[in-house]
Amino acid sequence: MYCQQALNRGVPQGSVLGPILFILFFDGIGTILVGLAVNYLLFADDLVIYSNDTDINNLMNKLNVTLQNINNWCTFVGLKLKLDKTTFMILHSRYDKTIPDNLNLQCNGEIINRVYEYKYLGVIIDSNMLFNKHFESVQDRFNSAIGALMKIRRCLKYNVLAMVISSFCLSITDYVNNIWGPTKINELPKLQKKINCLLAVHQYPRLMKYYIKSYWKDGQNAVKRKALALKCEAEHKSVNYCNLLERANL
After folding, report:
1. pLDDT digit string, tens, across residues 2-39
2. What are phi and psi of 117, to 5 degrees?
3. What are the φ/ψ torsions at residue 77 (nearest 5 degrees)?
């Protein structure tokens, strides 16, 4: 069943031409940003304005003017700017202590919330560009993927396991790695080590005992635990990880 209905504004959801019509409709926002000394990124209906300045007051004034112009354009074309979902962030060095905490950005009398972390297109950006929270998120998702593959490794052939690792694990660590990766250059080898262990356990099942907590409970005293640790280290050193990674094309 269907019915006809006149639309005075907007784009109907779920229509075939909806995305194209929305792009044509919303793309005009770029014309009002020309000459304001700001840059912008547009992803569907999500708009990001960014600019730089050596003077924080000049920067805030520039953003205030830009935000007001955007709000005026939205009103003109029949849109409403969601100010309660609008936030701003100041990116600066963690050693720069000159950035005040009471920065004020307003639009139509409403105060825009300042944030120090924001998730944009899957990346958690912080004001100091350290990406600590993002790396924690990457680690959690990566560990979950490795743990799941560890459980089903016996059901997969080596080439299939390599393909699944590439799809479910490396897709997590490689996503915009060129942006956040350089800040975590010393942490990334820990993730690679887990991939190495997964491949080694698949090829050498005897190593699996070292990843079971009950195995280490046998070494209650320091002497036994040290002996187990030395044995574990020796068996892992005998594994040719370069060969495993080359065979898996990882």
Report:
1. 677 777 666 677 778 888 888 887 778 888 888 788 89
2. -145, 140
3. -95, 5
